[in-house]
Design goal:
The protein has about 240 residues and is mainly alpha-helical. Helix content is about 80%, strand content about 5%. It contains 10 helices and 3 strands, in the order H-E-H-H-E-E-H-H-H-H-H-H-H. It has a 3-stranded antiparallel β-sheet. Strand 2 and strand 3 form a beta hairpin. The longest helix has 28 residues. It is globular, with a radius of gyration of 20 Å. The protein starts with a helix and ends with a helix.
Length: about 240
């Protein structure tokens, strides 16, 4: 086997494991698999058209992320994201978002700044119309632009992961909440601080934005959402 063939084989192996891992993580976070549900290697392998090896490797990676637990001689069971995990993620994320905003003031391009400004403008429009789905998409994109503008692939990757972890819970608790207009106002303030190259203010505003988002989730049913989930699990 040539060096190029060996390299291709290794690349294919790891990309396959990565695809299985990303698919399973997405399914867990989206709620396809319920908490404490067993994940069966054979069934998942058949569903995804792969052997048990990449599924087993994905299980180990999911366990490292705390999304499943593997019990020897029994199987792999979904852990999911707990209420405490949500709080922890938002507290950590508040610091990292602040750092992203600080670095964005140093590295943002004109195109990224223009997209931020357009994002804020469009969010105002959809907020007035009560378009919650479009608001959620614009909210996600605002943060993605800021992550990209930070100029750090490592920071961007970590923040995107945290964002995915809480997305399902966030949808549950904010579906009928009036957070949209206030959130967009906070986005506008962050964007202006970045535009004016005020790194200290941008960091402070982005940090507080996440604190406000978490407090709003608590106010609008975070605890109740988890209490209901636990109740349903007990019924099963």
């Amino acid at each position: 086997m040539s060096g190029n063939d060996l390299k291709q084989e290794v690349t294919d192996k790891y990309s396959l494991r990565g695809r299985v891992f990303n698919r399973l993580r997405e399914d867990i976070l989206s709620g396809k698999y319920e908490e404490n549900e067993e994940l069966r290697e054979v069934a998942i392998g058949e569903e995804l058209g792969v052997s048990r090896t990449p599924v087993r490797e994905a299980f180990r990676q999911l366990e490292l992320e705390g999304l499943i637990r593997i019990i020897p001689n029994k199987g792999a069971y979904v852990t999911g994201i707990s209420e405490k995990d949500v709080k922890d993620i938002y507290m950590i994320r508040s610091r990292l978002e602040g750092l992203a905003a600080r670095w964005a003031t140093e590295n943002i391009t004109l195109e990224q700044l223009e997209e931020m400004e357009e994002n804020v403008y469009l969010a105002k429009f959809h907020s007035e119309k009560g378009h919650l789905e479009q608001l959620a998409e614009l909210d996600n994109r605002f943060h993605e632009v800021m992550y990209e503008a930070s100029g750090s692939k490592m920071l961007e990757h970590q923040l995107r992961d945290f964002h995915q972890y809480v997305l399902r819970v966030r949808k549950k608790t904010l579906a009928s909440a009036n957070r949209g207009p206030q959130s967009n106002l906070e986005h506008e303030q962050i964007m202006m601080a970045i535009k004016e190259k005020n790194a200290d203010l941008a960091e402070q505003l982005a940090h507080q934005h996440m604190i406000n988002a978490y407090e709003n989730m608590v106010k609008n049913g975070l605890h109740e959402a988890y209490a209901e989930r636990e109740k349903q699990a007990n019924i099963k």
